[in-house]
Predict the 3D structure of the following.
Amino acid sequence: MKLHDSIDGLLLVDKASGITSHDVVAMVRKRLGAQKVGHCGTLDPLATGLLLIVVGRATKIQDLLMSEDKEYVGTMKLGEITDSQDCDGQVLEERPVEGIDPCRVEGAFQKFHGDFYQTPPMVSAIKRDGVPLYKLARQGKVVDREARFVHVYAHEVRAIRLPEIDFRVICSKGFYVRTYVHEIGLELGCGAHLAALRRTKSGRFTVEGSLTVEELNASGPEILARKIIPLPDVSRMRGA
């Protein structure tokens, strides 16, 4: 029996900026020589942090793992609205950042706490007639998107150093942090876009102790296999 034939479980990877979630899947597939490899929740190239990689029979619980709540820390930049709602997009509008005090900032964040509807951005992996929205966006197309019911369980304004604000948010599945930032910016009246993002937690799994991309590429299949959390352990940890 080949090594990859007996591997079933979860690998925690700390995704680096500048690569896609699919790039990480391809790296794991190459290192292990395995065919059944997937990820649980896309991180944009801009974003870093926890990416859950499922291997073998763990791909069957991919949707269950994706349904877990997530925690992110990020930085938003006030005064600039971009077409992608993050720093990789084109600036559509610039507005002055005036009279923004901690009370106003907390009030804006508080408005997007609990249950509310969120319209996914055009730059997303959601498909319309089989085509991801981000591909339509690259063609300059904008289509109607159905608003989704989301939930913010907790938020924290960690630092205000205008025009930037550092924050933390714990949210439900299907949540777009870039849209969250965009809408908070509109609430403040000056606009905003996402400048940096890091996923720190998904369910009970945290980024601490996860495998960096450099470590992933430097590991042989036997070493990598020892880093994989077995399915029974995954089942016990799921459902935070």
Observations:
- Residues 3-67+205-237 form a domain with the Pseudouridine synthase fold (CATH 3.30.2350.10).
- The chain has two domains: 3-67+205-237, 70-201.
- The chain is about 25% helix and 35% strand.
- The CA atoms of residues 76 and 195 lie 5 Å apart.
